[in-house]
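Example (one chain per record):
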Amino acid sequence: MDAEGPLALCDLCLAQVCCSLDALCSVRADGSMSLVWAPLFPQEMADQLLQKMTTKGILNDTTVGIFRNCKELRLRRASIQSSPVSAEAFRLALCPHRLLELDASWVSGGLTVADIISGLASNHECRLSLQRLSLSGLRLDWESLEEDGGVHVGFSSLQGLRMLNVANTDLSDAVLEDICTLPHLETLDISCSSISKLTALFKCKNTLRFLIAHKLQQLDMSPARLLFVFNQLHALRHLDFSDDHFAVDDSDGRVGDETVWQLLEGTPEVLPSLVSLDISGRKRISEAAIKAFVESRSGLVFLGLLATGVSSCDVLSSKKNLKVTGEADENQVCEALRRYRDRECFIREALVHLYNLTTNADKPQPEMLKLVVSAMQSHPTSLHVHLVATACVFNLTTQDLAEAMSVSLLSSTVAQLLYAMKTFPNHHQVQKNCLLALCSDYILQDVPFDKYLAATLVINWLSSHEDPTLQRMAVAVISILVAKLSTEETAQLSKDVFIMKQLLAIVQQKAMVGVVDSTLKFALSALWNLTDEMPAAARNFIECQGLELYEEVLESYYSEPSIQQKVLGLLNNIAEVEELQADLMEEDLLEHILSLLQDSQVEVGVRYFAGGILAHLSSRAEAWTLEGELRTTILEQLHDSIMTWTQLEREMVSYRSFRPFCPLLQPCQPSGVQLWAVWAIHLVCSQHTSHYSRMLQQEGLTELLKALTAHPDTHSDIKELSDRILCMVEEHQSHSGAFKSQTEPRNS
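Predicted structure:
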């Protein structure tokens, strides 16, 4: 079982509700949804349903309408983060609820801070109940706010607010003045805003405990004045005055840097309650200043020093209870990835150091991998983040490291790799990193992910790259993925002539120099699986001159049974398609295949596939276009040769279904044709009894075999093998009671 365990029943139920909204809802006149019937939801579950709709990306003006039902769906902690919700939909669906928390960060759809404030303030209960409000990434549009009954509507209307996030907004000094009048304000995030003065903070100096002021590039205050403001915040316990070291040059951040230096050099009487300080990205900080600051504050629990150059200061390692973000070791880097998830500048910095620290990783680090995946998810459009993160993923999953991690973690990791490949199709290094990480037998075989998408992405990448090492990996990945696709997915993929041409080009490239390597074998396996019971793919193969190429390969690789098996396996797939059999009616080709069947020095695996081609082609006397004598010889040699074959222990072939065998098992068929079919069925049934016994039953072949054994003209050799197969099926039924589902085998 997955180390993280199965999903909670509540999660599964909510996910099912999300998938079934169309069936569960009616549509109002304005196009919004309303649940046809709804029980009284447990309050927390209503919050969870909204959260689930948000994370699944299905929350919008239409679906958010179900929350207009305030009696059955009572929201308290609402998240609509990054959802396309308009002002009107927000007002109708969320504002009537007595909310405690609202996260409307980065909402699209035109919703502004002014819309949210006026909407929330219209609910008198909400004015007092709302404690936490996140509005990061929104436009204020403050001028549009109107007075409500003669009373000014602003942040100060929400008297219960304790936490406010207005980072990444066009926050002005005037609006900050309004915010700071809130009587219970404890946490304020004004990062990346347009603030130029912080003097408004005097108004909340007795309540403000957490101030996050990252990257205030328009701040216009002297270091002395800034420090004076900070020093007045008597309740302040956490101060984040970090900066984006990528965005500023040495002169831009000088005032902030000087302020930080003075703070570090100051006495403990400055901000006496401070237990957490983040100055990551600040320049001109000395180790001596850090040492003095840390030693003078025994209650310090966090210090942010990423990209400052001083995180290796000796005093930091002596403080066991002090958490530090920096680059000195794995703990500092991972702390940075945890704390700075939404800050691209610091995530980039931390990932670079993580990559260097994990280059020779020799033990599994699942928690570290989670942090890398989270970073990729938090910055979906950042090339810089994905470039380094994909390299980190490779470091953390290479060799046998992946096998010690949970399947769910690896599944989400691969999903992010595929997203990176899709998002940055023209960036060579990102594509290479993803391919290196994907080229893991364990991940490809045992981890669930969208294998169809992966196959198409890798094939597209392959078309524009000829590096031999990467080509080998790409073809190996494609070969394994194609074998894992469902019948429907294989059919969809096999329609693409481009894919066929790419793989055939690799076969031709290798065949021209006569090389036998894994790239050639993987390409042949992929083509074999692509054409398995796929007439359209088989036709594409022929139209792409694949038949001529395979005839050459068959002759030039006469002494390479592993190559011959794959070539003959694909020709078997063509021979199964009645309308394509005429393309194989070449005397030289069939005589060569017949010689392989007859040669006792040739491996049984090669003779088996040779026999399959000949059995299918000779089974239809009316379609035979060559000399009748050749068909007679083939039928005679089929029976005689098969009777000399020894049972194979190793797995050599697999079948999607036994449908192609039905015509061969008819009582009217020559014994050589029938014998090859029953020998083939016996072979796979003896190796995968459960899977193929079920297939025989479902497709009606047990009845065909019974009819064959009962027919007076059936050869005794065929009756004997058929009886063995039927015994296997009956024995399996009696032991298992019911057929269990197994992974479908594939050709390799």
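Caption: Residues 738-743 have pLDDT under 50 and may be disordered.
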